[in-house]
Amino acid sequence: MSDAGAANGALVDVRDVEKVFHRGSEEIHVLRGVNLQVPSGEFLALMGPSGSGKSTLLNLIGGLDHPTRGTVSIAGERVDQLSDRRLAAWRARHVGFVFQLYNLIPVLTAERNVELPLLLTHLSKAERRKHVETALEAVGLQHRAQHYPRQLSGGEQQRVGIARGIVTDPTLLLCDEPTGDLDRKAGDEILGLLSALSREHGKTIIMVTHDPHASARAARTVYLNKGELTREPKD
Amino acid sequence: MINWLSQIASVTKFGLLSIPQRRGSVGAALFGIAGVVAVLVGVLSIAAGFRRAMAASGSPDAALVLRSGADSEMVSGFGRATTRIIADAPGVARGPDGPLASAELFVIINLPKISTGSDVNVPLRGVERPALKVRDSMRIEEGRMFEWGKDEVVVGIGAAREFSGLRVGDKIKVGRYEWPVVGIFSAGGGASESEIWTDAAVLQPAYKRGDSFQSVYVKLKSAESFREFHDALSADPRLSASAMRQTDYYADQSTAVTKLVTTLGYLIALLMAVGAVFGALNTMYSSVSARTREIATLRALGFGSGAVVASVMLESVALAIVGGAVGAGLSYIAFNGLHTATMNWQSFSQVTFALAVTPQLLVQGVVLATLIGAVGGLLPAIRAARQPIAAALREL
Ligand SMILES: Nc1ncnc2c1ncn2[C@@H]1O[C@H](COP(=O)(O)OP(=O)(O)OP(=O)(O)O)[C@@H](O)[C@H]1O
Ligand SMILES: [Mg+2]
Description:
The structure holds two protein chains of two kinds. Chain A contains eight helices and ten strands.
């Protein structure tokens, strides 16, 4: 049922999810009956070999795609049943995304990039500015507000990406290999930031990663393998 | 609603801001659209200019009388007695020296066109004194008016510009004689400016016309007197003559040419527009594909696909309008007021006129550009909005 997740206290409740992609006549079974519950405030790492379906699962949780079978409930809402249009509005309200390649808009300053999700709210200009300031401060980049992405290092760009992800104070922060393109030091800064967000601000975070060093910073790690989720890495 | 508009505004802004990175393809599309609009506006300005010259030729309180059944002066003819009856008909305005009616002769002489050097038909008109009051826009611009009864001519300013040998002091061949050009006149941009004028009384013997004429031009008491005048001529058993308002006569003369030119203009523009649509399509596809990940990112953040469609369309239309404005501006600079001459098929003689790039033509040009932009932007916009987000995010 739709409020089963809420009932058992899980913010994210993924049940029996299957995802099949079609490539020509070929069917690719990427997820084969995945179950995952994430309680509110948890910092979860999702690991697995390349092509195991980590991004696919994250996208289903973030409402970027629909599962072939199964249910995805977030805070009691069946997002697998929402239309594309409703999903867009739902994402704007509930999900913050952080991407491996930052995905900042190159023609906008850091500040304007962070402001983007706020354009989908009813906040006034002044309120938006305040939120942007707070978010940039949280990632330690208030002094870089006027810089364009190309003027920032990879680590700094990713911090802007995180500021953009949290600026609306979303229910969920979904990070797909947020340190995948960074060196160890910059990656550590990002991980520190994420765990602080979880610890100090009670953010629920799901982070896809390849890096055991990164997953070690999470409260819990789950593994995807051949479309199934396990508590321990296989092989 | 506000929310939706601000979404569109911001997505559009990213598109426009990224134009410098795509200036090659954007420039090519702009160039194509500017070309289409310039050609459309340019060709239509021929029709507009011709129509304007013809409209300037007639005034609503003037009428032209031809023999019944004649649709041009070329095939019309009257004896002196008939022209008197016409001049005295009710509705004709009178001056101190009698009715404002000019019985006229219309012959054609051959002169080389300056632009091509080849001989063309130039109208030579014999007029009577009241002609100057019937066509009150006539003014001597250079030299003087011909003297009545003398073998002299004055030349319309358009004719003087387009045909050679028509400067003051030049002599033109009239039948077996050579008559001097003594003046140049203007006529408010109308068709008379393409003509050469002389005294009808000296033209008759030169062309062995006896005491006959081809047409009678009259000034009416008022525009409303036309009915009365027209009906009086039709009712008179001594006459076989029909009256036309000057405005109608010239409008008739211009329809054939303007229709032809307008049709041609639209046809050429349409063909070119198809090409320009592909240019716009290409530009917008490349705009959209260059921004696949950005657009997917925005949509992941919650921007609606409607906003994406609208903004891609807006970008395309905005670019097209810029291209259209450039094209319209160029054709204004290049064509507006440009003097030329063409065959008037009704009188088998040349009409000189100035191309007219009117505000309506500029608007038409920009409207065409907008259409090109909208058509060219539609498919790329739909593609951008339809692209599955998850798949688009995987692209680099
Ligand atoms: N839209 C799609 N169409 C077809 N196949 C897809 C699509 N998206 C993903 N796949 C396939 O599904 C499988 C899982 O992809 P996914 O991106 O989820 O893997 P991943 O675990 O995130 O891998 P990586 O660690 O390399 O990012 C891959 O084989 C991929 O080719
Ligand atoms: Mg992945």
